[in-house]
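Table 4 source record.
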Amino acid sequence: LPPRHMDSVVRIVEALESTDHNFTGTVPELARALGGCSTPGCRAVLGEPPDVPPAPRTLSREQWLLFTQLLHQDAAAPERGVVLAPDGSTVALGPLLAGIEVGLKRAAGWPFPTVEPPIDALYAVTITEVLGTSFLLARDGAGNRTTLGPDGCWDDVDDPQNYTLLGPPSPIPDAVANGAMDGVLLGAHLAQAPVPLADLLRGYYGTGNGTEKERPPSSYRRQDFGVLTGPGKLEEEVAAMLRVLRVLPPTQELLEDVGPEEVVAIARQAAQDFTEVYVECPAIVPRCMWGARPYRGTPKPLTLPLGSVYIHHTFIPSAPCRTFTACARDMRAMQHFHQDTRGWDDIGYSFVVGSDGYLYQGRGWHWVGAHTKGYNSKGYGVSYVGDFSVTLPDPDAIALVRDRLLPCAVRTGRLHRNYTLRGHRQMGRTDCPGNSLFHEIETWHGFK
């Protein structure tokens, strides 16, 4: 089959939007016919799905098969309906296309059915039903049910076919959260200004052949979703959705013993946790996605929370990386250098900062690194890709660590509230992290 890549989806959408096809609806309606948004809440908002049409003439057999597989919803394995985007993130197609359908219908003045209590259709079909349900189910499980995540990995980023989750599944793996946030953002955009869907997707995700020099809009999804949604909106919508599910026959039973106060408490917890994990904390590209070799030997565990953070620059590579392809290549090059030339067990840094909107996992939150001699077990080593002796990282890359990674590490118990932040040069004989970056971090919280 074609690769499970957003480029394949864009080509399918483009073919379906061309005039010669035997389905009268829009592409999102076709997606719903194939099972893309078939939950009780989705049906309450968008109505019963259309009938599955015969295979459209404009698609090859393989394209139709791929599209059908991606939209066949399996509640037990939501990660099957996902594709790899050019920015290295993985996106579930169901919530993405459901949000787009709501946006197109709003632009056309379509009369949405009246639901009691009133709900925002855009959030209902993308995130609030699955989010409310996830936290509702977890309340009986004495805390051992996963409510959000995990991330996952592709078998081959150049020809992605199989996606495997990196931990116990929840109803909202990271790919479903990404698809839902993108569905909200693109649905809201389309409601204001309808454009052909293939153009919209290509503009938002970029194209996957790695020729882009700049970040695609999809790499800003967390900030943009946070700005659009605001802290109270998600909680309100989850609570309203749970009240709607209470009266829908298929879900009545789930909620029959849940009182009004408990609905409010579940909604608050769900919105709070989702916002912390997917809006306030940064996305971190796991090792398997950048093509890491295995660790040599046995990693030593860190004792959390740590008290320090040490800021570095890589110096070589000297240019910032601005795409997933370039940053992943740089990570592999640094790991090879650290393992083969330096003789270390692994890439030395805990985390590496790209200029593509993403952090890259080195040794991560739990293992002792090799970044700041004599202090590796005391703090995290965070390194910016590039040489920052005379220039600064992009403002976004600065904010990614200063305003997202560090506060998130404190909130999640990995870093002491009163942590100390230092440049590598303060801990040993080196110019690292370069004069410009060092003067920048002197202004950060915790610098001593």
